[in-house]
Structure formats: structure tokens, C-alpha cells
Design goal:
Length: 427
């Protein structure tokens, strides 16, 4: 779809936060990799849950029956979102980090001293530290997939070089929250399985930008957080049903062994699940509108197909915005983009653009943009491994600009102009 036809103003009107101003100045939300804004659908679903369905599960009165229905619908919605075979494969939790810490403990029962796990130098620490802690507790050997610091991508043999007959698990991110690189998860999952290892995917940074099909990817576990794809603070893990059934779970005694309950510890955030449902409804609605992607996705549920079509449309707009941002940054003297920059390779990255600028620490840049009501992040952003790998930790990390489909061309242009002004004032 041509970028000029993208209904940006009508879309932005669905997000109340995008209309807010501070001292008369509009807010520019380029902090999206850390958390996106939410459409009215999410707010309405959350309020409804808190006012009309606020009860625990399993009773006989009207609010508990309504809460049961809500929880079941949320599980089915996420099954559609991930293209899971069943809602039994969907596990809700506080966030991706908490779910991964929990699942790492559960999987520990299958591991023995001397077993090996493979981690990625490109990952957010939520998919690194839990496994490092597990390795320390169980006497496991950790091997590392390293990326090319010139291309910001993994080579085809990056994983096979570190696999061995003792590899039991490979954990890697689908997209980097630092470099923006989208990794070839499907290929790496096949390589891990050929070695007899499980494959665990952090999809937090991909979920706001692209449709996810776990059946096509061939991974074993995949987890994301709804607050990164226009929903509330909520995490959602998918796992293969047969694996979830055979995996030990840490739980209280009254909890059953049925799925997904055996992994959903305690009382869940029903309002968070309602908001997650609202986020998926928002996406699906845009996949059903005229002008949406012509792809049918006939192998998916109607809602899952609509979500994927919405992402097809949003992705084209995001590629346009990202290329516009990179084109504006590239001529700046002393500025180095830490990620893929070719417009022809936009499909291999999400619109998260990190950079460094000679003579200015990222924190100082972030403060200067904040004074202009432009919201960006600086530092390592929990991407400890890639920032260390690029030798930037002592320099204060990176300045990170994260776009979403609700951002506009005018906002990108405002950012570039603001950067020029910051640099001129420095000089």
C-alpha cells in the first residue's frame, strides 16, 4: 500500500495519549521499544473487567462466571495472535522477564551438570540472565552465539559453530531491542532441533511490528509482553502442548496439572488479560478494513489472519518511517547508526534505531530531547550483551529511537530538526 494512503490521522485518533500535550507542546513518543501507547479499545476492555467482571474464578455467581469467560477468551485471542494450535498452549504472566525466569526454573528439572546451553550476544538480558543463573545453579556450560559487529547480523553458521552433542537449549531474541535486527529464527530453530536442543524465543521486540506464526517457526517456546504491542503490562508465553505437559511446574498444591493452569501461578491479572484482548481486537479490526493486506492467511483463524493482515499494512508504513529517519541521521557528522541502514534491507530490521554521536553522551542527548518533549531512551536499555559487544558500555551505551505504526512523518522530521539544533547549540 503506498505510504501516502496510510490513514495516519484516523489511526492516531484511536490512541488517547497521542493527543496529550505538556505546556502546549505535543508529545512525540519514540520510546516505543520500552512500551507502546494503548488504543481506546484496550482502555475500554480494562475498565469493563474492573467494573463488571471483577471476581476470582471457579464460582457460581455472575461476576465469577463472567471472569471465567474473559480469561478463556483472552487465552483464545493470544492463541490466534501466535497461531498456536490450542489456547492450552498459552500461559499468561506478569511480563516476559518473569515468565522466562519461571520457565527456566521449570525446565531445570530436565538438565544435568555438564549439559550445555547456547545464548545470544544480541539479546535483551531477560533472555540471558535467567539462563546464566540456571547454568550457575545446575553446573551447565554456557556457549555464545556472536553477531557480526559490522553488519549487526548473525552469520549463517553462527549457531552451528557452538552447538554440540551436549546442547540442551538455545535461547535467542527474534528482534534486537538495541540494533533492531530481525533474526532468522526459523532457520536457527531447525539447527537447534537437528542438534537435539530446545529453542526458546524472546519475541518482545518483534511482536509490535510483525505477525508471529509459531507453527511455521518451529520453535518450542516463544514469549512476548502485551505492553510492547499496544496492550497493558502483561506477559504471554506460548509453548508446545506436549512440552508443557511433560515439563515440571512450580505451583501451589491446589493448582491442577491441566494446561495452562499449572504454569499460571496464583491469581492472574484479569484486567491485564482483558486489555491484552483489547489490543488484539484493535489489530484485528485494522486487518479487516478496506485497503488491508491482500494476503488471505487461509491456514489461520479469522482473527489471526486479520491480525497478520494488519501487521502487513503497518509494516510498510514503519519501513517508510524508518528509512526516513535513517536518511535524516546518516549525513550527521560523527553520528554512527548501530544497526542495518540500507533501505533495501528494511525487512531485516524493526524500526528501532540506535546511534552514538561523537562528543555527546547518550544520556545528555536524551535529556536534550526530553526538554523538547521528544521521548527517547539512552544507555544499554537492558541490552547488556550487544552494547558490551560493540564496546559502548563505558561510553554510556546508545541513544535509542523506537518508531511504531502510529508515529508520523512530521514527528520524524521534528526529531531530525531537533537533533540539528542540539548539535548546533553544542558547537
Amino acid at each position: 500500500m503506498p505510504q501516502t494512503h496510510f490513514p495516519i490521522e484516523a489511526l492516531r485518533a484511536q490512541f488517547p495519549a497521542l493527543a496529550l500535550k505538556d505546556d502546549g507542546r505535543p508529545r512525540i513518543y519514540f520510546d516505543n521499544p520500552a512500551g507502546t501507547q494503548v488504543p481506546q479499545t484496550v482502555i475500554d476492555r480494562t475498565i469493563e473487567a474492573m467494573t463488571a467482571k471483577n471476581a476470582n474464578l471457579g464460582g457460581y455467581f455472575s461476576t465469577t462466571v463472567a471472569a471465567d469467560e474473559l480469561v478463556n477468551e483472552a487465552h483464545q485471542a493470544m492463541a490466534d495472535f501466535y497461531h498456536a494450535r490450542s489456547p492450552r498452549e498459552i500461559v499468561f504472566g506478569q511480563n516476559m522477564t518473569t515468565l522466562t525466569l519461571h520457565m527456566s526454573r521449570c525446565l531445570a528439572k530436565q538438565l544435568s551438570p555438564g549439559d550445555e546451553i547456547v545464548l545470544s550476544r544480541m539479546d535483551h538480558d531477560a533472555n540471558v540472565a535467567p539462563w546464566l543463573l540456571l547454568a550457575e545453579d545446575k553446573g551447565l556450560t554456557v556457549r555464545w552465539m556472536d553477531f557480526d559487529s559490522d553488519t549487526y547480523e548473525f552469520t549463517e553458521d553462527a549457531l552451528t559453530r557452538v552447538l554440540s552433542p551436549r546442547t540442551r537449549l538455545v535461547a535467542m531474541g527474534f528482534a534486537s531491542n538495541c540494533t533492531g535486527t530481525i533474526n532468522d529464527v526459523k532457520r536457527f530453530a531447525a539447527q537447534a532441533h537437528d542438534a537435539g536442543a530446545l529453542f526458546y524465543v524472546d519475541a518482545v521486540q518483534l511482536a509490535p511490528h510483525c505477525g508471529i506464526d509459531v507453527q511455521d517457526l518451529g520453535c518450542d517456546f516463544l514469549v512476548a509482553s502485551a505492553y510492547k504491542f499496544f496492550g497493558p503490562h502483561q506477559g504471554i508465553l506460548w509453548g508446545r502442548e506436549e512440552l508443557l505437559n511433560e515439563t515440571f511446574s512450580y505451583k501451589v498444591r491446589p493448582a491442577g496439572d491441566d494446561l495452562p493452569n499449572k504454569f499460571e501461578t496464583g491469581t492472574l491479572s484479569h484486567e491485564g488479560m482483558a486489555g491484552t484482548l483489547g489490543a488484539i481486537e484493535y489489530l484485528a479490526r485494522h486487518g479487516d478494513e478496506p485497503g488491508a493486506s491482500g494476503t488471505t492467511y487461509e491456514h489461520m483463524s479469522a482473527r489471526g489472519a486479520a491480525v497478520h493482515r494488519a501487521f502487513d499494512v503497518f509494516t510498510q508504513w514503519e519501513h517508510h518511517l524508518c528509512n526516513r529517519l535513517i536518511a535524516g541521521l546518516s549525513p550527521v557528522k560523527g553520528l554512527k547508526i548501530r544497526g542495518i541502514t540500507s533501505a533495501n534491507a528494511a525487512h531485516r530490521r524493526v524500526p528501532t534505531v540506535s546511534f552514538t554521536l561523537e562528543g555527546m553522551r547518550p544520556e545528555a542527548l536524551a535529556k536534550a530531547f526530553a526538554r523538547k518533549n521528544i521521548f527517547v531512551w539512552s544507555g544499554h536499555n537492558y541490552a547488556v550483551e550487544p552494547v558490551t559487544r560493540m564496546g559502548l558500555m563505558q561510553q554510556g551505551g546508545v541513544l535509542r529511537v523506537g518508531l511504531a505504526h502510529y508515529n508520523s512523518e512530521a514527528e520524524v522530521d521534528t526529531f531530525i530538526a531537533a537533533l540539528d539544533e542540539v548539535i548546533s547549540l553544542r558547537n
